[in-house]
Amino acid sequence: MNKLKIAIQKSGRLYEDSIKLLKDCSIEINIGIDKLKTTALNFPLEILFLRDDDIPQYLEDGVADIGIVGKNLLLEKRKRIKIKETLGFGKCRLSIAVPKSLSYNKIQDLDGKRIATSYPFLVREFFEKRYINAEIHEISGAVEIAPGIGLADCICDLVSSGSTLFMNGLKEVETVLQSEAVLASHLHLDSTQHIIMEKFLFRIRAVKKAKN
Ligand code: ATP
Ligand code: ZN
User: Fold this and answer.
1) Are residues 170 and 109 in the same domain?
2) By residue range, what is the domain housing residue 162?
């Protein structure tokens, strides 16, 4: 029988909860030592372990049929894929933060500022809608240290507890997006793949219901 290929994060913040979701759906897997891919023992599912950043592209190309990834990444990458279900974990927000010492009252205070982020598209859209002119500097990691080393005046990054911001002398001032993990799919699944996905979604919804 055909199998459905699901992409999940290889390691990182979404890994444990993605594995737990499979388990809660009574899908049994053995994770091998190389951890590149594995096949479920009692469900027609093949699991691919990938970097989260690569998952949206793989879903667009059909290398994976479905995948678990943060809404933040999906909206930033703007691939042609479909969101099927929100999953209730990986909750965070994409927020703008400024140095604690800066007096901040309103969004216009960001006009003319240099902002460091890994989310240039979402940040640009946020500013354009509000007629703010900010200079966006795209950096791929450790965004929170940018103001401290003089690379930018402020940042836009993912926040959950806020402790990373606090430790870097920053304060959160605006929310650009609320995010959580979602199940997304390739646009053109064949009929068998579609049936398997619907079975999986049925179980996911039952798990979500049981938790509420
Ligand atoms: P990878 O090695 O797969 O590229 P990464 O370092 O880019 O991993 P993680 O930090 O593991 O990614 O975050 C993965 C996702 O977890 C984020 O895209 C986001 O949706 C979610 N997330 C939840 N809380 C946070 C947080 N406080 N900081 C960053 N991401 C968070
Ligand atoms: Zn990543």
Assistant:
1) yes
2) 92-179
CA–centroid distance, residue 53 to ligand 2 (Å): 5
Whether pLDDT at 33 is above 80:
no
Confidence bin at 1 (pLDDT 50/70/90): low
The Å distance, Cα 61 to ligand 2 centre, comes to: 19
Cα dihedral 70→58→139→86 (10° resolution): -10
How many angstroms separate the alpha carbon of residue 77 from the centre of ligand 1? 15
Supply the angle between the helices 191-211 and 15-24 in degrees, to the nearest 10: 90
Please state the pTM of the whole predicted model.
Answer: 0.95
* 77, 11: one domain: yes
Domain count, the chain: 2
User: What is the chain's mean pLDDT, rounded?
Assistant: 96
User: pLDDT, tens digit, for every residue of 146-184?
Assistant: 999 999 999 999 999 999 999 999 999 999 999 999 999
- Asked whether the beta carbons of 41 and 86 are under 8 A apart, the reply is no
Please give all residues whose beta carbon lies within 6 A of any atom in ligand 1, as ranges: 9, 12-14, 51-53, 70, 72-73, 90, 92, 158-160, 179
Pairing of strands 114-117, 154-159: parallel
Question: Which of ligand 1's atoms lies nearest the C-alpha of 70?
Answer: 20
